[in-house]
Amino acid sequence: MLLLQTGFAQTKLQTGVWRGALKTKSGTEIPFNFDVSNTGGKQQLAIINGAERFKVTDVSAKGDSVFIHMPLFNSEFKLKLDGGNLSGNWVRHLADNDLLIEFNATPNTSWRFLKDAEKPAADITGRWSAVFGEGAGADTTVAEFKQSGNKLTGTFLTTTGDYRFLEGSVSGHKLYLSTFDGGHAYTFTATINDDKTITDGKFYAGYSAQEGWKALRDENAKLPDAYSLTSLKPGYKKIAFSFKDLDGKTVSLDDARYKNKVVIVQILGSWCPNCMDETAYMVNYYKKYHHKGVEVIGLAYERTTDFEKSKKALQQVKDRFNVTYPLLITGYTSDKKQTAQSLPMLAKVVGFPTTIIIDKNGDVQKIHTGFSGPGTGEHYTEFTNEFEKLTDDLLNAPPAP
């Protein structure tokens, strides 16, 4: 047993794997598993999504109440412990209000969707062309699935990123996948007709969003080139900005720190899971390349224009990933039109993150939309190899006289 010392009676949370489930407006569950452990006399848990273990250490108790504060995305759980089970709400703190979603969890439960699954009707391991929505609003993605018996993992890759680590199962002709990261909660269901077609898909996001999807096996499925989706407006070669960092100091590309350097400008938001995957990568990239003449700047577009609220959210990101390059508060929101207004040299901003690569002359060489994180496997490896080769090429090129 894990004991939480409080000013009242001790609250006991059982160690080991739990099953938690968020309840959507339609009644559909968004389930996930988490592992409770006792480290140094304190409670912590790890949220399980495929190969990812998302550590959460800010857990406290008072009487029969348990509070779990997520390290990112400005959300928390407010729960009651009753008969060994947990019940209450997941609370998302949005810009102007709080969104509460019902949550329940049971200990000693390692299954996610089904305790007893039927024999799978097919093996769907491989690459698929998956379409979300219909008509003019349809979005074609690439699905990557890995099935081992009833267990299913994978993700969906889109032009603006991926759905990160998904985990679930195949039972008979039914597909189930879900993920939870403290900011986003997703469930995917569908009918597997055979090993070539998936139909009747439903995608549930958060409390109320729903969308249909379907997929066809296509080992050659691919997305548009992420470097082709946005560009500078005609006549521009450079970008310019002046925004404040977390200490209130104004930072500009004209600062001496960036002269004759390769500069990576990261357009991000603390609310964006793909941005967090990119930040985790950028931290290590910066360690590798900073001494060679590379600088990184993060431009944050938050849910609010309030400086202090934005600072609080970004400080969590800085602390979580140990970010040592500047994170700037732009004062613009995450609305893509506002983002584009803040950098009027850009033709458009398609999505978050967007990464701008600047050479030693201060000229924009490439603009990359989205980020395929570690949940995408070989796609992540391909991106990092390509990105670092580009960096090496720019570093080896002499600056203009």
From TrEMBL:
Keyword Disulfide bond belongs to the record: yes
Domain Thioredoxin: 232-389
InterPro entries in the cross-refs: Redoxin, Thioredoxin-like_sf, Thioredoxin_domain, Thioredoxin_ResA/DsbE_sf
Gene Ontology process terms (BP): cytochrome complex assembly
Intracellular or extracellular location(s): Cell envelope
Annotated Gene3D superfamilies: Glutaredoxin (3.40.30.10)
Protein name: TlpA family protein disulfide reductase
Species in which this protein is naturally found: Mucilaginibacter celer
